[in-house]
Amino acid sequence: PKLYRPADRISYRKKMIHSCHDAKQIVAISEQTKKDLIQFLSVSEEKIEVLYQGCHREFGKKQSETELKALREEFGLVKNFILSVGTLEKRKNQESIVRALPMINDLDLVLVGKQSSYYQRLKKLAAKLGVLKRIHFLEKLPTKQLSGLYQMAEVFVYPSLFEGFGIPLIEALKSECPVITSSGGVFAETAGPDSMYINATDVDALAKGVNDILASKSLAHKMTSAGKEYVQKFNEKDIGEKWMSLYQRL
């Protein structure tokens, strides 16, 4: 709640309570969201059905070395890199990655997302820590370019403080990129049992996680192969069939 203006909190809560109690059926995008609806809005469990989200089918499509090389050159990605995707805002907590960067050798950081006032905060912090030249800020990328970045990244880091689902996590898993994300909440539900989980604000643990993956090809391979298998549960055909079944029942 502290990340939103009081007027917005009051307005959203009022609208959400009305919508949830007026609707005949509610679809939650995760079991975590279902629990939140029951806990915070006193919605009947029988009224809620969980239907997961998918991601764009471009993710997971292998790109050629020529395409990836061109992408590296376009964005000046000389070194290997950590990738994080999401609006640059306090809730997404990119600050933890920036703070961890001095403890991670030989990797740059690519932050992809809409820039807000938090962007300036991240730049000032990076300059103070002496890592600003190692960070690439990108936004408004075509889906194919974003997919290519996932395929080239050494590790995907998503230390968000709160999500309803976290679509970038399944984009990374489909792209066979090792994932480090936050413990608790929805994250394990989306990223699966073989991703790495840390306290979102534990900078030392984040740095250690990245360094462990870099140091062990077997660990990275285990995470990517298991992640690719786990992410099949979010395929669009199954999700579409469940939506159609729900429409027909209603």
List the helices and strands and how they pair.
Elements: H1 6-22, E1 26-28, H2 31-41, E2 48-50, H3 65-75, E3 81-85, H4 94-100, E4 108-112, H5 117-129, E5 135-138, H6 143-152, E6 155-158, H7 167-174, E7 179-182, H8 187-191, E8 196-198, H9 203-215, H10 217-230, H11 236-249
Parallel strand pairs: 1-2, 3-4, 3-6, 4-5, 6-7, 7-8
Helix pairs in contact: 4-5, 4-9
Most strands sheet: 6 strands, parallel
Indicate the structural class.
alpha/beta
What is the typical, i.e. mean, pLDDT?
A: 96
- Proportion of β residues? 5-15%
* Strand order in the largest sheet: 5-4-3-6-7-8
What is the percent of helical residues? 40-55%
Radius of gyration: 19 Å
Order of helices and strands: HEHEHEHEHEHEHEHEHHH
List low-pLDDT spans.
Answer: none
Give the CA-CA distance, first to last residue: 34 Å
The overall strand count is 8
